[in-house]
Amino acid sequence: MAWGMAQDLAHITAGLMARTDLLGIDSHGISMLPAYEEKLRAGTLHLDARPRVLRDGGASALIDGMGGLGYPVAAQAMNLAVDKALQHGVGAVSVCNSHHFGAAGVYARIAVERGVVGLVTSSANGVIMVPTRGAMPMLGTNPIAFGAPAAYNEPFLLDMATTTVAANKVKVYDFLDKPLPPGWAVDGQGGAVTDAAAAMQYIFKHPEGGLTPLGGTADMSSHKGYGLAMMAQILGGTLSGSAFAARRAPTRR
Fold first, then answer.
1. Cβ atoms within 10 A of the Cβ of 57, count?
2. Residues 15-36, mean pLDDT to the nearest whole number
């Protein structure tokens, strides 16, 4: 609220961030606040934004995040999708013009807690995933989350990046001064990077190098992870009319 976010939207955002930490996903919860402050000070994040519905037709809808944080608009989108699913049997809602929304899995949980199956995909405006056998990044971490309720047991919940790990996992290793497992990150020649601080430079500063697709190496079928990332890009970005990150993202220096 001190940054200008409306009280109701700040309440939703804080609740989702805190829940993410309580689920043990330290990389995507409250620890994201410094990154959001950087975007706020750079003028690229509009925390006073209020999402608005651009199109609403039967079982589908499109919501504009108005350049704000992704938490409140993603929660709104999932709840609207559930409403539509309960009415029509299926509901599909896309979000455009939005920023980071934390862990995708918290939105799949919204669907599960309301008794329906939920699927969440998202593209990213930062390109940090290097294609299999490549050296230059072309996609973001592009997460996929899925949840399904169960009658008598705990629900099934999947929350995964389509990179071998999310960039914020590398951030945690860097903070703890721990070496990375081989296969998480690559340099400008496609070679493995195990120093977490060096990996952070390749991910966020250098134009070359970055994170590997899920699988890590070609021998471990990382092309499948890259294919899943493209699927998430199409469903989470292209379908909503958003820009393709690889064509829009500025060159890292």
1. 8
2. 94
Q: Is the dihedral of CA 191, 192, 195, 200 positive or negative?
A: positive
Question: Which among 119, 156, 117, 125 has a CA at the least distance from the CA of 142?
Answer: 125
Rama region for 210: left / alpha / beta (φ>0; ψ in -120 to 50; rest): left
Query: Within 10 Å of residue 39's Cβ, how many Cβ atoms?
Result: 15
Check: pTM over 0.85? Answer yes or no.
yes
| pLDDT tens sequence across 169-178 | 898 899 999 9
CB within 8 Å of 85: residues ≥ 6 apart: 59, 91, 116
Cα separation of 116 and 43, whole Å? 38
Among 71, 190, 175, which residue's Cα sits nearest to residue 129? 190
The 10 Å CB-count burial string (b at 16+, else e) for 208-221 is bbbbbbbbbbeebe
Contact between 105 and 147 (Cβ < 8 Å): yes
The strand ranges marked E within the chain are 52-57, 60-64, 92-96, 118-121, 144-148, 156-160, 185-186, 192-193, 210-211
Confidence (pLDDT) at 243: 73
